[in-house]
Amino acid sequence: MTGDGGTPVLEVEDVGLAFAGVTAIDGVSFDVRPAELFAVIGPNGAGKTSVFNVLSGVYRPQRGRVRFLGEDILSRRPHEIAAMGLARTFQNVELFHNLTVLDNLMLGRHHHFRYGALAALAWLGRARRQELAARAAVEDIIDFLELAAWRRHPVRLLPYGVQKRVELGRALAMEPRLLLLDEPVAGMNLEETEDTARYVLDIRDELGIPIVLVDHDMGLVMDLADRVLVLDFGRRVALGTPAEVQRDPKVIEAYLGGSS
Ligand SMILES: Nc1ncnc2c1ncn2[C@@H]1O[C@H](COP(=O)(O)OP(=O)(O)OP(=O)(O)O)[C@@H](O)[C@H]1O
């Protein structure tokens, strides 16, 4: 069991977010501990993506506080939060599809995505000359995620499951202090799902990186997570170990009565 003690990496306190009268998050609190695999689940529209967008600085909530490594991040822009060590993957693959696996991971070491593809490519030219150390770190990630066979291949030619793994690698290349995974197995077949689950556990256990994973699939989350936050209609329905959450009548009600 990991994530038992220590100062929380992430502290979320009474966060509230609404869009033109629609409540997306309604007074949600939780924390994430060192080397913990923390899952956020809930039926469709429960507020999971909104929580992610608050954590990564895309949405600014009207109420509450979020601290990452002890620092308030609510007033920070997304790229500043990323630079502090909070890396995320997306529900859809977001990579430079014409670049190789290696180049996508090299780009992950820097936070130039906000400038667009041209600036990123210019940076890549400089990186080739200047950053041999970056290259060594990226090669380690390629080994860790078993991507060696594809390292020189353009991402667009890779199977979907491998593309998702490259995206994971790009997030790791940022040397994150916390990793946010948005539906990491969405659209995957069984084999790809099992592979991904194994890599996610390895990231926690071997690299010691805490993870917040969002998904609506109870099965996967219950197998992987140390603790689970269940949301419904933007509210916290339950928070606890998978076993605690699974037998909570409020959770069963949210799933059976929900739209999922
Ligand atoms: N940008 C937005 N503008 C308006 N309403 C939004 C916006 N983002 C989310 N919402 C609303 O907030 C609520 C929570 O949505 P959110 O996408 O966070 O849920 P979710 O749990 O991620 O759902 P899903 O599993 O379907 O992705 C919903 O009612 C949604 O319509």
From TrEMBL:
Residues 10-258 form the ABC transporter domain. PROSITE patterns: ABC_TRANSPORTER_2. It comes from the Bacteria. Coiled coil: none annotated. One of its GO terms (cellular component) is plasma membrane. Keywords: ATP-binding, Nucleotide-binding, Transport. SMART domains: AAA (SM00382). SUPFAM superfamilies: P-loop containing nucleoside triphosphate hydrolases. GO terms for molecular function: ATP binding; ATP hydrolysis activity. This is Branched-chain amino acid transport system ATP-binding protein.
